Amino acid sequence: MVSGTRAGRLVRWGAVAVGGLALYAACAVMEAGGDRAVIEQADLVGDWGNRDGTRLHIAGEHSVSISGLDQAVPDNGCPMTVSVGTWSFLEPKGSRRTSPPPEPLTGSDAVDLELKPDVGYPRACSVFVKVQRDDDGYDLCLVMDPDQTCMDDELLRKRGPRNG
């Protein structure tokens, strides 16, 4: 038989263990970059980059160029530098639409990058972009699979004259 004092300690330690496990699980599923957010074309267009050297230029006419892609999406199978590519908005996460929209989307929380190979690269590739927002503003998480997440140093943030 377990004494009252020992039983009380076991219950407290059990509660501490369960609480610690719950905190670990909550932290493990938190994604860098904040929550998914819908971005309008005017906010998406421009230069984006991360501190590891990835640079992405998104133009209003739906063209893109990117360098250092491997610094944002390791082991992606795409060329590291792409001078020709296109982008398009995808249906926002949770959308119930089953057919293509009658008009092109003007904003979304997801973007598709179709990257054309430079000379000497065997194939084109596609990169999925999750748009997120945190206290620092919008950020882009480039992944090969929509279920993947980004580490903080992989996130692309809008670049301008002040932040390079």
Automatic annotation (TrEMBL):
Native organism: Streptomyces sp. Y1
Protein's name according to its UniProt entry: Lipoprotein
